[in-house]
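Page 47, continued from p. 46.
Same chain as before, 79 aa.
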Amino acid sequence: MYDIFIMDMGGNADNVQVLTERFPHAKIVRYYDNHLDTIKRCVSRSRTKFCWVISSCCDYTNFDFDFRRSEEHTSELQS
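Result:
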């Protein structure tokens, strides 16, 4: 299991609640200014080799959080 960070985009409290119930270990982070800086902040706080940074305004009902990159692609950013 990787760390999960939920970017709180504001105005999506119901979805944040659904995500935190599904992933109780997830950390909620505020979205400031731009995605890159927010993602960098999450990566610096991660305690696992990889992490998921997800948005409070997206539906992850059918998202596969068990997905793992192949070794030759582990240094790439997946969006």
